[in-house]
Design goal:
With 117 residues, the protein is mainly β. The chain is built from no helices and eleven strands. The strands form two sheets. Strands 2, 4, 5, 6, 9, 10 and 11 form a seven-stranded mixed β-sheet that branches. The protein has a four-stranded antiparallel β-sheet with strand order 1-3-8-7, with no helix packed on it.
């Protein structure tokens, strides 16, 4: 099982980024998949999730209306479209999965998102 994130970078407040997560060794639509983030000096924070099969999406309150999670089953890739970015969104972002919806033990190496003017 491997997850590889990409798409992070430096963006000004109000800007957009799209993160990608390439999954291998399993089908991404067979498990609940999440994006989690870790800001400097803080713990891991769950950001968004997508259920297996049905693809129902979930978001933490601070990103609702700004972030969109999606999944491409054909390419086994998870995405996070991030719009209207704020400085407080600065963090290392990981795609994650595990034995249950709130298990983030399987993660990639992460991708840095920095929102700054």
């Amino acid at each position: 099982v491997q997850l590889v994130e990409s798409g992070g970078g430096l963006v000004q407040p109000g800007g957009s980024l799209r993160l990608s997560c390439a999954a291998s060794g399993f089908s991404a639509d067979s498990k609940f998949m999440s994006w989690v983030r870790q800001a400097p000096g803080k713990g891991l924070e769950w950001v968004s999730g997508i259920s297996r099969s049905s693809g129902i999406t979930y978001y933490t309150d601070s990103v609702k209306g700004r972030f969109t999670i999606s999944r491409d089953n054909a390419t086994n890739t998870l995405y996070l479209q991030m719009n209207s970015l704020k400085t407080e969104d600065t963090a290392v972002y990981y795609c994650a999965t595990g034995a249950s919806y709130n298990d983030y033990s399987v993660r990639g190496q992460g991708t840095q998102v920095t929102v700054s003017s």
